[in-house]
Write a structure and sequence with these properties.
By secondary structure, the protein is an alpha/beta fold. It has two domains: 84 residues, no CATH class; 133 residues, Rossmann fold (3-Layer(aba) Sandwich). It is 42% helix and 17% strand. Helix 4 crosses helix 5 and helix 6 packs parallel to helix 11. The longest helix is centred in the C-terminal third of the chain and has 19 residues.
Length: 254
């Protein structure tokens, strides 16, 4: 049950279209669905405004199919991160209508149209090698807010590429900045804009990059104000945070 469904249930009680006993029965379903290998949080959307997301890595194909089937009983859209083509094919074979994005290993099950946010998220990626993480952020934000754009391969090694796209940067309400190597792009973007910047360090880089640790530390120590940092390669986390900020902005716009 999400917030809209709860409001509708309360309206039905108010208008005598639903009895108290029927409402109690409906609300008793709120909480979680028990499977042998998973407890699906059906209350997440009501608490947080977004439904539970499935982290695919480490789960068997059979477990993922079972979880998706159970979650499909609701009207919530479903997002699976860090999954594989085998899982995507297996879900399709089960008759589940999916989108699969192989470059970032995301599966989306669209159950209803995403309400487009009035506020825009922009995903900025330093290099082409960062796109897998950037696309994880992009497709997550797209599912959660419906209003997101991409600006890729604008790293500081050719900073004119970024400066040629300043209009896009200034137009965004929240920016997700994805970079590897020394992570300098975040400080440059953060120094240009007044909007929140969410930095996503990637594990892209040579030996002393230490699989993203160098980038992470550089971003944490950014001289630009208004920059927050999520974990290495965590495009999903950056997008989820950006989406909560956008949702808050939209409340005040309304």
């Amino acid at each position: 049950m999400d917030q809209q469904q709860l409001k509708q249930l309360l309206e039905n009680i108010k208008n005598n279209e639903t009895s108290v006993d029927e409402a109690v029965k409906e609300l008793s379903k709120v909480g979680y669905e028990e499977l042998e290998y998973a407890k699906i949080d059906t209350h997440r959307n009501l608490r947080n405004g977004f439904p539970e997301v499935i982290y695919g890595e480490g789960k068997t194909k059979e477990h993922l199919i079972g979880i998706v089937k159970k979650m499909s009983e609701t009207d919530n859209n479903i997002l699976i991160t860090r999954t594989t083509k085998d899982v995507a094919d297996a879900l399709s074979d089960e008759g589940i209508n999916i989108e699969y994005h192989p470059h970032c290993n995301i599966v989306i099950v669209n159950k209803n149209e995403v309400k487009k946010s009035k506020s825009k998220i922009l995903v900025v990626a330093a290099g082409t090698s960062d796109i897998s993480v950037a696309d994880e952020a992009y497709f997550t934000a797209k599912l959660l807010t419906g209003n997101v754009e991409r600006l890729y391969d604008v790293g500081v090694a050719g900073i004119h590429r970024l400066l040629d796209n300043q209009d896009k940067i200034y137009d965004a309400d929240v920016i997700i900045c994805v970079a590897g190597m020394e992570g300098a792009l975040v400080s440059v973007v953060g120094g240009l804009v007044s909007s929140p910047v969410i930095a996503v360090p990637t594990s892209i880089g040579y030996g002393a990059n230490l699989k993203g640790v160098t980038t992470l530390l550089a971003m944490i120590n950014s001289c630009a104000s208004g920059v927050g940092v999520v974990n290495i390669d965590n495009g999903f986390g950056g997008a989820y945070l950006a989406s909560t900020i956008v949702r808050t902005i939209d409340k005040y716009r309304d």
